[in-house]
Amino acid sequence: xxxxxxxxxxxxxxxxxxxxxxxxxxxxxxxxxxxxxxxxxxxxxxxxxxxxxxxxxxxxxxxxxxxxxxxxxxxxxxxxxxxxxxxxxxxxxxxxxxxxxxxxxxxxxxxxxxxxxxxxxxxxxxxxxxxxxxxxxxxxxxxxxxxxxxxxxxxxxxxxxxxxxxxxxxxxxxxxxxxxxxxxxxxxxxxxxxxxxxxxxxxxxxxxxxxxxxxxxxxxxxxxxxxxxxxxxxxxxxxxxxxxxxxxxxxxxxxxxxxxxxxxxxxxxxxxxxxxxxxxxxxxxxxxxxxxxxxxxxxxxxxxxxxxxxxxxxxxxxxxxxxxxxxxxxxxxxxxxxxxxxxxxxxxxxxxxxxxxxxxxxxxxxxxxxxxxxxxxxxxxxxxxxxxxxxxxxxxxxxxxxx
Length: 403
Description:
The protein is mostly helical. The chain folds into two domains: 3-277, no CATH class; 291-402, Cytochrome c-like domain (Cytochrome Bc1 Complex, Chain D, domain 2, Orthogonal Bundle). The protein has 17 helices and ten strands.
């Protein structure tokens, strides 16, 4: 983002006011409450989500030296690895020039200009008077926001909470000159839309798909393995141990204790959670499913498919009441001999995924083993021995598309 945008995110945004404290209580309860987050808290959280690096420039710049690499990358290359451009941040003249094809997207200098304008989603940079990037950091939006492509592929209005399944974080990290060849090989093996949030602790390689960050109100176990009680737990884990921001994270169940002072994380977590809980899952696209078939598919879902035994209630998950052993999960074993995600987690279990906006975020399951909803149904049918008919499978897919 540009320096003016950075300056507008001031300490007053992070003050833990009574309103934000009430928002935290509401969010953690998962219940509708008169003390829902104030608009101010949600707005503060939006700024944190989009623009705050928690001081992680010390890692991405000083340790990985990625600022020097980004200086040499064209927008076309950046877009090819899934980085997005926020069209609404661009001055009208710049946006018009892009639409008219008058901006050279193969020139690295254009990348620097976009960073100066604060238009690269999830990336913050300081650019000096000589157009050199001097500091670079990441924000939550890098993985958990995308754009609607209204201008061009990868250029449009933000969609916060949507998983960026086109982002190739491993390939981006592997550009660092500070990494060994062996480390780069692991990062380059992940592919688009996947990230391994344990690799830097256990050295194993088992990336998981980037999950959506919308539709989480009322869901306590928000990750595939249900490690933490709420969003705040995972926000602290990611901001400190993956973004490498300044703060602390302690997880005795995994033997993790990271202390990276000064603490630039804790005072921001309540507002960040309030914003994330305000992100509703998008409705299905108009005309994207057959309503009559979806009605029949719902009957399969609750009946012959036995899906509702775990995908229960209004959230279509039993994650708030129980977790499941790996043997119960159809997406195991992991593909390509990767280590079990549960075995690397604090719970050693899996939660049932809440079903929302499924048509928008393929591939499916924590490890992406099902490329389509048709593949999801086939996998369940085979591994659960359901013996669904072709018609039942087709109807069930339509129901899933309707969610």
